[in-house]
Amino acid sequence: MKDSVSLKVSLPVFVLVFEVIIIALYAVFVTYDDDTNAKLQNNETSPMENSLYRDYPYFADVQVMIFIGFGCLLAFFRFYGFGGMVFNFLTATFAIQWAILMQGFFQFYYDGKIHLGVINLVNAEFACAVVLISFGAVLGKTSPVQLLVMASLEIPIFAVTEWAVLKYIRINDAGGTILIHIFACYFGLGVTFMLYRPSLNDGHAKEITSYHSDILSVMGTLFLWVFWPSFNSALTFKGDDQHRAILHTFIGLSSSTITAFALSALFNKRGKLTMADIQNVTLAGGVTVGASVDMMISPVAAYALGVMGCTACFFGYKYLTPFMAYRMRIQDQCGIHNLHGLTGIISAAAGICAILLATEETYGPSMYQIFSHRAPPEGDPRLLELQNLIPGLKPGLGRTAQEQALYQVAAVFTTIGASTVGGLLTGLVMKFPSLASPSDKNCFDDELFFELPSDFSSVEVPLTYEEKGQMNPMDTKV
């Protein structure tokens, strides 16, 4: 049996074909937005009024999360550090390029062009984060070609879902709980369900960590932890809304972190800390505050959400992940259902409660900015009164708190349904033999796809019964 998979044809062909497609689409559809177009600027224009200075810090922060945070976090396997970090790099770069187009096509429908600026890049990074979260479910079990195929299909499915939810259901989701975390989770679970490998339920000899790989993974956690407030606040209203979002995210992360340490020691048989808990469970609070991150939920609520998210995430890793693998054919390699699915649902529920409790007494007239769909519709005399208090306030839909809460619930189920179906179909495509999928024996091993340095040492994995039956007598086993 061959112990390596050649990417000599499949990877270059896929990349070159998509590069030709992207070049053609960029040439036809993509242009500069107003803040990057020289014809719309002059010597009287104040440079500091350019949106660059408002949006670039958030773009840079999310870049760090995408390429360093996720990259290091996914490098926790002893023999798959290159794969976790480098395939994250490859997939993220591709996904951002593709997301600019896929998300921009809805702008093209209205404007005839895709107007590109820094804020478009921020939105594309969020779409990229969706792909990287889903990647965690199949880490170590897929080829780079399969990952690019997954990104190429997930991005348009996400873009359509995002557009439909925001345009027709119309929800509050400042931190991307529903449209990023929940979507990415159930899409990834759909993919890994289709790529189910029965022999991996009993573990794999290379599915182990090392001292150095765990340190590298914790570095990724720290980068994500530090920059998560930017992720949650990037698309909120500037000013007090963004201020609250940063505070709530920090408080939620802080409470989930110390709770994770306590739970890790408490439930370890020898009373010691487990690195997997530190690498993942500590981040739960960043997700659980997401849906209500810009609302007046109070600091204590953010703290409680961090504790709740951490607890659900911890027990999900301990009990739910093994159950899903054995009973539901869902091998969630990085436990994305715990860190993004369970916590996402808690966050969505908290957001619904915050919407139901929101009143003008608490928020003042700005309630109709934060909950824009509750603003009076065009022609309502109340709208004119509010516009005198808040110049530029746009007409809303006149929804009540109860109506908006029901739309939030509808968005959760719509997102779960669309992402799950999309993931199942994508997983089906990823099973094509031409996509260089690794065998069960060669999962979690960099040696399959990389030229490795001399100090790399792997382990021998016994052949399964099925693999022995497929061996050519002329092949030799290393």
The gist of it:
This protein has one domain: Ammonium transporter fold (Orthogonal Bundle).
Report on this structure.
- The chain is 63% helix and 1% strand.
- The chain is globular, with a radius of gyration of 23 Å.
- The protein has 17 helices and two strands.
- The protein is mostly helical and 478 residues long.
- Strands 1-2 form a two-stranded parallel sheet.
- It has helices at 10-29, 52-73, 81-111, 118-135, 144-169, 177-194, 211-233, 240-266, 275-280, 284-288, 299-327, 336-357, 360-363, 367-370, 381-389, 401-430, 465-470; strands at residues 30-32, 114-116.
- The longest helix is centred in the first third of the chain and has 31 residues, at 81-111.
- The model is unreliable at 465-478 (pLDDT under 50).
- The protein has a single domain (10-36, 50-448), classed as Ammonium transporter AmtB like domains (Ammonium transporter fold), CATH 1.10.3430.
Question: Can you lay out the helices and strands and say which pair or pack?
Answer:
Layout (H helix, E strand, L loop, with lengths): L9 H20 E3 L19 H22 L7 H31 L2 E3 L1 H18 L8 H26 L7 H18 L16 H23 L6 H27 L8 H6 L3 H5 L10 H29 L8 H22 L2 H4 L3 H4 L10 H9 L11 H30 L34 H6 L8
Parallel strand pairs: 1-2
